[in-house]
Write a structure and sequence with these properties.
The structure holds 2 protein chains of 2 kinds. Chain A is mostly helical. Helix content of chain A is about 80%, strand content about 0%. The model of chain A has no long low-confidence stretch (mean pLDDT about 90). By secondary structure, chain B is of the alpha+beta class. In chain B, the strands form 4 sheets. Chain B has a 6-stranded mixed β-sheet with strand order 6-7-8-3-9-10, sandwiched between helices. Classes of the chains: A mainly alpha, B alpha+beta. At the A-B interface, α6 and α7 of A face β6, α3 and α5 of B.
Chain lengths: ~230, ~375
């Protein structure tokens, strides 16, 4: 119990003192997961709309597969990305293993099913009458899709927040393809894992609290954005 | 030439046939109302005309051109029309943005949009609601937004599906006022579906009766309400007296029809020959009641006993047994003057021209 309390005071201390290493690690977590989430959203929201607005054989099966992939463990993705970019792997020549780029790619793959699945379910929440009304008023299929996306904006935003949360909180993939290199690929979760194994519980707990704090700020900013 | 022509239209939903080889032509500038009970296929017909659905069979011609079953041309034609759906669906945007949507989709300039939207909001009495989120409006206000959203497009064809269903009387009056204003301009072709007979009658140049997926009769208000084509239409348009009978004489267009168990002869104007099995239809408001032994120039005058009096507001519905059953609609005042009550003997009088004869066993 004392460790938690000490961790809490330590966290406040680190935040107030703007400890340079902690700030750097937190900033890296934010930029890597933020980039992964942004890129994945740019792909998944249009792709999700495309899936939602088109009728094709196997659509139901596809959606089931996407939803199943919500539970894909991050170490499996870490393994996949590792194999893909390792020196002997098919994309080994790019030399991006153990770089932030590899981490971003890993996290994008990790959250793609969540963003796709939740975008589709967000759009399904918009009634068919809204679609008919837009069509009647002369909207093209693209204009209709855009309107429906706007109607579903709260739920789509929830999908993005969910994706970001999954990306910033995962550790397996970041560790395996980032390598936890100090000053280069070390992020909050990998640091927590390392510091805990070193017995440095206070710092680990402090970083955990900072991670949640970051998530809170991102949530507030995104909610503000969509209210405008 | 007709602006809209529907030829041989049939449509099914999940194996249930909702429209049966329907033909309809509507002229430019015409106000056409489609009446029929709930579930008759009115909404489906409007949806097909608005090109929201592809019919199972049949063709639609718009301005002389046959509309393809798919492709970009459908959007172009749809943009010349606008459809106000029965349940108003407003977008989760401001009232202004809701009304501006269609114009933006057509690529109209923003300064023109402001001008048009403000003008139309004033017309439907919502100018004070410009910046409100449309989702916070009442049902009547939302329907006015929906109407404004369609009118602002200045469509060649305006389709209205039960525009006042589920609205309170004040909202209904406001919507009707706007619709009749647009109808009077005679620049917009209107097709309105309604189950409200008086609404259909007030606004329409022509009425179509849709029963069970079939367009049974089209014509002006007098045709539909006073000369229904068959028993079904007669029933639907409120002809309460539909008497089964046989024509026993035809004297230069004035026929005698035997009705009721006692084969009482009533006179009507018709060309059907003797021996024809028919229905004699009499609207309840065309029957006048008088004290017995009253002399009248009307050909039909029958003495009978009042079996029931039901007063609703300013009118009384009186059921009389004069060997055959009749229902008459009289003002409450005259019911009181005649001291109408159960068992009272009265004289029911109606003109031969007030009786409409339809052939039995026709669809």
């Amino acid at each position: 119990m004392t460790e938690i309390w000490q961790g809490f005071t330590k966290a406040i201390e680190l935040i107030i003192s703007l400890d340079p290493e902690v700030m750097e690690i937190a900033g890296r977590s934010l930029s890597i997961s933020g980039t992964a989430c942004l890129l994945a959203s740019l792909i998944c929201i249009p792709l999700g709309s495309l899936i939602h607005f088109h009728h094709f054989g196997g659509k139901r099966v596809l959606i089931n597969i996407i939803q199943t992939l919500f539970s894909l463990p991050s170490v499996i993705i870490g393994l996949f990305v590792f194999v893909l970019f390792s020196r002997a792997g098919p994309l080994g020549e790019l030399g991006i293993l153990f770089t932030p780029t590899a981490m971003i790619i890993g996290q994008m793959i990790l959250i793609t099913p969540i963003l796709l699945g939740l975008t589709i379910s967000a759009l399904s929440g918009v009634s068919k009458e809204i679609v008919d009304t837009a069509t009647s008023l002369g909207a093209s299929s693209f204009q209709t899709a855009w309107l429906v996306l706007k109607e579903a904006r709260y739920a789509v935003l929830a999908a993005v927040i969910m994706g970001f949360g999954r990306a910033i909180s995962e550790v397996g993939c970041a560790l395996m393809v980032g390598g936890n290199i100090r000053g280069f690929t070390r992020v909050i979760t990998t640091t927590i894992s390392l510091e805990t194994s070193k017995g440095n519980l206070e710092l680990a707990i402090a970083l955990g609290i900072i991670l949640l704090f970051l998530a809170l700020i991102v949530n507030i900013v995104l909610n503000r954005l969509q209210q405008r | 030439m007709s602006l809209i022509e529907v030829v041989g239209l049939s449509h099914s939903y999940g194996g249930r046939k909702v429209l049966h080889s329907l033909n309809l032509a509507i002229d430019r500038g015409e106000v056409f109302t489609l009446i029929g009970p709930t579930g008759a296929g009115k909404t489906t017909l409007l949806r097909i005309i608005d090109l929201l659905e592809v019919p199972g069979a049949g063709e639609i011609y718009f301005d002389g051109k046959c509309i393809p079953r798919s492709g970009k041309q459908r959007l172009e034609i749809r943009r010349r029309m606008s459809f106000v759906h029965q349940k108003p669906q407003v977008f989760n945007l401001s009232v202004y943005d809701n009304v501006a949507c269609g114009l933006r989709w057509r690529g109209e300039e923003e300064n023109k949009i402001v001008e048009k939207v403000d003008h139309i909001l004033k017309m439907v009495g919502l100018e004070g609601y410009r910046n409100r989120n449309a989702r916070t409006l009442s049902g009547g206000e939302a329907q006015r937004v929906a109407l404004a959203r369609s009118l602002v497009l200045e469509p060649e064809v305006l389709l209205l599906d039960e525009p006042t269903a589920n609205l309170d009387p004040i909202s209904t009056a406001q919507i009707e006022q706007v619709i009749s204003y647009v109808a009077r301009q005679r620049t917009t072709t209107m097709i309105m579906a309604t189950h409200d007979m008086s609404q259909g009658r007030q606004l329409a140049d022509r009425i179509g009766v849709l029963l069970d997926g079939k367009l049974v009769q089209t014509g002006n208000a007098d045709d539909i309400f006073y000369s229904p084509k068959n028993e079904e239409v007669a029933n639907f348009v409120g002809v309460e007296n539909i008497l089964e009978g046989v024509i026993i004489a035809n004297d230069e267009g004035v026929v005698t029809v035997n009705v009721g168990p006692d084969r009482i002869g009533i006179q009507a104007v018709s060309n059907y020959p003797t021996g024809k099995e028919v229905y004699a239809c009499i609207r309840p408001e065309d029957i006048t009641l008088a004290p017995i032994f009253h002399r009248s120039s009307a050909r039909n005058s029958f003495q009978g006993k009042v079996t029931r009096v039901n007063t609703l507001g300013p009118l009384s519905r009186v059921e009389i047994d004069c060997g055959f059953r009749l229902t008459a609609l009289v003002t409450k005042i005259s019911a009181e003057e005649l001291n109408l009550q159960e068992g009272k003997e009265v004289c029911a009088i109606f003109k031969a021209t007030g009786v409409h004869i339809i052939e039995r066993g026709v669809d």
